[in-house]
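From the pipeline queue, job 12 of 40. The input is one protein chain; the requested action is below.

Action: predict structure.
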Amino acid sequence: MKATLFAVVLAVVVGSSGVGVPAQSAATPYKLGTFAEGGRTFLGLVLDDSVVIDLSKADPSLPSEMKQLLERYDSVRPRLAEIAAGKTGRVNISAVKTLPPVMPRNILNAAVNYTEHAQEMASVPTSTAKPAAAPPESIAGIWTRKPGDSRHNPYVFPKMVGAVVANGDTIRLPPGRTQVDWECELAIVIGRATSRVPVDQARQHIVGYTLENDVSDRAGRGDGRHGSDWFLGKSHDTFAPLGPYIVPKEFIPDPQKLPITFTLSGKVMQDSSTERMTHDVDEMVSYVSHIMTLTPGDIIATGSPAGVGGAKNVFMKSGDTSVCTIGGIGTLTNPVR
C-alpha cells in the first residue's frame, strides 16, 4: 500500500508492555513478507508495496523464520526501522515470488461478524445464519455478557492450514462444486502466546494485520447431517488465500476504521468498513484465547461484510479474478480456475 495511506504518524508507540512511550522519530512505514528467489526463501521488509529488502542480507542476526520474527518483534523493531530508513539492498518486488507471509499453526475465522452479512444470509435457504430464537446468554467460563449487550455471542470456526495459498496463487474450484463464494476479511496476526486474555489487554498480543479471503463452498453436503458442515464448506485446498504481507500494528492506528472491498473480475461485490464488525478485533482475540492458547503467527479472520455471492446467487467461475482490498493493509489478488 502506498506510503500516503500511512500518513498518520503515531505520537505514541505501544511497547510490549502495552504502555505508551514517546516515539523517537516518525518511522518509515513497512510491511513484513515471506519470499522465494532462486530456490531459497527469505523474510523481507516491504516498502511502498513495490520493493523488498532481504532481511537475511541486511542483518543476518535477525530471525530467519516469520513466527520467530513476530515473537521477537518488539525487540527487533528498532533494527527493522533502521533497515527501512536505509537506501540499500532494495529489490523490485516483481523479481521475487511472494509466499504466504506466515504459515500459522491455527487459523480461526469469525462467522457472521457483520450485521448486514447476517441479514443477507438469513434469507438464503441453505444458510445457518438464522436469527436467534431468544436473547443470547453468556457462555460460562468463556464469554461474559455485559448488561444491555444485545449482540449475539461470537462464533468462531477453524479453517485448515492446508488451505493456505499466497497472493497470486490460483483458487482451484473443486470438481462438481458450483457454489464457491468469496469473503474478504481483515485477519489478526498474533505475536505472543495468548491464553484467557481480557478484552482490554488483547491488543498487546496482536503484532499486526493481513488479509484473508475466506473462500467458501455453499453447496452443502446433501443430507443435512449434524447441521452445517464447516469442514466441507471452508477447507478445500486453496480456500484460504492469505497476505500478501503483514502490516505491523503501529502502522494501523485504528483497525476498526478501514475500508474493505472485494471485486470479482472487476465488478464490486463487497464495499464496507471494518467499523461494521459486530465484535471488534480485541473481543475476537479475547474470545478465542478463552478456548485455546494462541501462538505467534496464528491468524484470526474477523468475518466478512455483506456482499457475498451466496446472497446474490452469483459464484466464482473459472477465469474470474478475485481481488480483496483493505485500506492500509493491502490487496490480495487470486485467479480462479
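Job complete. The two ends are 27 Å apart (CA to CA).
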